Amino acid sequence: MAQVKLTKNELKHQKDQLKRFQRYLPTLQLKKQQLQMVIRQVEAQRREVEAKRTQLADNLENWIAVFADDVRLDQLLTVERLVTDSGNIAGIDIPVFVELEFNVAEYDLYVYPYWVDTGIVRLKEILSCDAELRVLDRQLEILAEELRITSQRVNLFEKVKIPETKTNIRTIRIYLGDQQTAEVVRGKISKNKITRGDAS
After folding, report:
1. Is 42 among the domain residues?
2. pTM for the whole thing?
3. Domain-located, residue 191
4. Running DSSP on this structure, what letter comes out for residue 168?
């Protein structure tokens, strides 16, 4: 703890600081709660997308196994680009999944089995789920880091800054009170000396 000056100006400065800390702390606590809530929502959304992806993959594998053709769907489909938007949660910018754009290679409908069209649609859905999971993971990383920083700030204010400032205010008040008492005592002693000096 830094040494504080034991003056009236410093007392005012410490009081102003305490007011500022106490005004800012609820905002930080609210931000922390909001971040925790959003993280839970993103985790739930991630679980849903992961379950959907697993179901789509299982269905596609079972379906392809039934037809037992040596067709590689991934050779007919390439990802062109991932489209994301930007969202804002508690003042933090996070990526938001919009869509995954694909490029489908031309293929001869007479050479490939009839189920390839549906298979490509399902593969697009699976790859879109994968991309959305990556974006959700990135959201969680950003939100977790911001939550860590916000929690540190809340702890700093609650456990360090506010108690430290209250202690400084109490110390300055005690010192200034002692000084005032000492001035009164010195004044009385001086008055008594003067009064005694007049009596002689």
Report:
1. yes
2. 0.77
3. no
4. H
